[in-house]
């Protein structure tokens, strides 16, 4: 994820060029979700993967409030990353390569 867009795994392949409204959530401990951040996006690439697809979404033009909320979301996402990395690092080497 970046300020310009996001890569996502989906169960159904979606056509490149399709405009969508994307709801983003942060996932906290105990699987609690943040409120949705809804952003307009366009599918710019798609690759079939197993039983679904991986798609690249570019955010369409965002208003000032959406830009501010995206910045907060990205900051919160960065704050969660060290905890997730520590949890991964605490696993044994054998568990890391299942």
Features:
alpha+beta; 2 helices; four-stranded antiparallel β-sheet; about 100 residues
Question: How does this model look, in words?
Answer:
This protein is of the alpha+beta class and 98 residues long. It is 31% helix and 34% strand. It has two helices and four strands; from the N terminus they run ββββαα. It has helices spanning 64-89, 93-96; strands spanning 5-10, 19-24, 37-49, 52-59. Strands 1-4-3-2 form a four-stranded antiparallel sheet. β3 and β4 (52-59) form a beta hairpin. The protein is globular, with a radius of gyration of 16 Å. Residues 81-89 have low confidence and may be disordered.
Percent helix? 25-40%
Proportion in β-strands: 25-35%
Number of strands: 4
Q: Walk across the major sheet and give the strand order.
A: 1-4-3-2
Order of helices and strands: EEEEHH
Overall residue-averaged pLDDT value: 80
Radius of gyration: 16 Å
Q: Which parts are unreliable, with pLDDT below 50 for 5 consecutive residues or more?
A: 81-89
Assembly level: single chain
Number of helices: 2
